[in-house]
Design a protein that fits this description.
With about 500 residues, the protein is of the alpha+beta class. It is built from 7 helices and 32 strands. The strands form 7 sheets. Strands 1, 3, 18, 19, 20, 21 and 22 form a 7-stranded antiparallel beta sheet that branches. Strands 4-13-16-15-14-17 form a 6-stranded antiparallel β-barrel. A 5-stranded mixed beta sheet has the order 26-32-31-28-29, with no helix packed on it. The protein is elongated and about 130 Å long. The chain starts with a helix and ends with a strand.
């Protein structure tokens, strides 16, 4: 081939070489892509299944949500923590309003007993808490006023008797002409005046508490001690006693209070937002933690027409029978008032609910997996007695931890099984201030992690209207049904005590 032909072929060779290189590159890329689609080897399957992040729910099981956390405890740990479980229950009280109340005497059947005369108490025969009958003597009072009234009555009786004799004698003299009619008329007038005076002194004795039998005895000439018996005006119980022997009294001084406790009033404060759900005549169910298993029924008999400006509540009253006087004055009770309804709600014990971050959670016993508990976020509703209504997150098929849920929560936090979110960077706890005190009264926080405690006072029946944390130099008022937040960062392990303003109720934060 001559030189000119070689020069003409050389560009074609270059083009063919470039095409060959492109084809080779495409082949390599195709093979690489196919290798990535090959099924995993048995070894790789085993490695993936052992990794928690690659866990796949088994067929027929409930898919695990992002908020569910599984905690596994040994039988020894379950026993040590006192963990108990029970099925979720259903309540029909969703339409009722829960109102804490106190037992008070029926004011319409309560009487304050005073002395009708001034004087000195010589004897007291009734004790505080004693059951008395109507007319029973409670005390005796020596009264100079009574002695003077008796003397005047006796003197007026003697003067009347003298006028009686003079009138009869004058009438006989007039008949025989030995006395004039004018003398008889004068004697009649004097006799009438004496009769009126006797009646006046008799009425005075009656006002001073002297009975007709005693007055008749006094009129017959028999001596009577100048003492007044103070008697009970009704059947009941002595709920207050101010009288003591030797005490000087006057009619304005209360000596005893006697109350008929066959019926009592249950008085509570109804929140302004619940007024539309309750009316006079609405049924009420009364329970008391001090009388477990005992329920009493009544009806709302009074709702205060005026709202308290500071608490935005109106006083509500229910009158109920009190057989056996089991309900004692001042006792705390729970009222469920309102018409209710046919709606039902899932309810759990208050001890079953824990606050994690900004969520309410319960722990469910894993079906067929002894010792395993699933943390489930729920939406809580109204508190009814010792139970909380759950709006969502649970079904009636769930079995939950009712006692020892705090131990399960602590184990979940210790193991770090809960996924860390923005809310977990701050510790939060909600503390309800009820008639029983702080609930919970003991909680745990971690050192160095910012904490927020939210206090909510739900009753006016206690003195816990403020909370104090002395070690942090914190003291806050607790308005009714208004959350109060206290934020701080625990700096060292130990116990941080908190209490109400009068130190009647207290609690502890365990920092570890």
């Amino acid at each position: 081939m001559n030189r000119e032909s070689r020069l003409q072929l050389r560009p074609a060779v270059v083009v063919l070489a470039a095409a060959a290189l492109i084809a080779a590159g495409a082949t390599v890329t195709y093979v690489a892509m196919k290798r990535t689609e090959l099924p995993p080897t048995p070894a790789s399957v085993g490695a993936a299944s052992s990794s928690p992040s690659a866990a796949v729910p088994q067929a027929g099981s409930r898919p695990k949500s992002d908020t569910d956390v599984t905690v596994t405890l040994t039988p020894e740990a379950i026993t040590r923590a006192g963990i108990e479980v029970q099925p979720v229950s259903v309540s029909s009280a969703a339409g009722h309003v829960r109102v804490p109340g106190t037992v008070q005497p029926n004011a319409y059947r309560t009487t304050v007993v005073t002395s009708l005369v001034g004087g000195r108490i010589t004897r007291v025969s009734a004790e505080l808490g004693q059951t008395v009958r109507r007319g029973q003597t409670l005390a005796e009072v020596y009264s100079p006023e009574l002695a003077e009234a008796q003397t005047r009555f006796i003197a007026s009786r003697a003067e009347l008797e003298a006028h009686d004799r003079e009138l009869r004698r004058t009438e006989r003299l007039v008949e025989i002409g030995a006395a004039s009619r004018q003398d008889l008329e004068r004697i009649h007038a004097e006799h009438t005046t004496a009769t009126t005076t006797v009646q006046s002194h008799r009425s005075r004795l009656t006002l001073l508490g002297v009975s007709d039998a005693q007055i008749a005895k006094l009129a017959s000439g028999s001596a009577m001690a100048p003492t007044v018996s103070i008697s009970s005006p009704l059947d009941g119980v002595v709920t207050a006693r101010e009288a003591n022997q030797g005490m000087n009294v006057d009619p304005s001084v209360p000596l005893f209070t006697v109350a008929d406790l066959s019926t009592v009033w249950i008085v509570g404060d109804l929140n302004e937002r619940d007024l539309a759900r309750v009316r006079i005549g609405s049924p009420a169910t009364i329970t008391a933690s001090s009388l477990p298993g005992s329920t009493r029924e009544g009806k709302v008999s009074y709702i205060d027409p005026q709202i308290k400006a500071d608490t935005r509540t109106a006083q509500l009253r229910v009158e109920i029978p009190n057989p056996g006087q089991q309900l004692r004055l001042g006792m705390y009770v729970d009222m469920e008032v309102g018409e209710g309804g046919t709606n039902t709600a899932v309810t759990v014990p208050r001890s079953a609910v824990q606050i994690v971050g900004d969520r309410s959670v319960v722990y469910i016993a894993a079906p067929g997996q002894p010792g395993q508990f699933i943390e489930r976020a729920v939406e809580s509703g109204e508190t009814v007695g010792d139970s909380i209504q759950i709006r969502s997150g649970l079904t009636t098929a769930d079995v939950i931890v009712t006692k020892g849920s705090f131990a399960v929560r602590s184990e979940a936090e210790r193991l770090g099984t809960r996924s860390r979110t923005a809310a977990d960077t701050r510790q939060e706890a909600r503390i309800v201030v009820s008639e029983k005190g702080f609930e919970p009264s003991r909680l745990s926080l971690r050192v160095g992690v910012p904490a927020r405690l939210t206090f909510v006072r739900t009753t006016d029946a206690t003195c816990a209207t403020e909370v104090a944390i002395p070690s942090l130099n914190i003291k806050r008022a607790l308005p009714l049904n208004q959350p109060v937040e206290i934020e701080f960062t625990p700096e060292k392990p130990g116990d941080v005590a908190f209490a109400c303003g009068m130190a009647m109720f207290s609690g502890t934060v365990v920092v570890g």
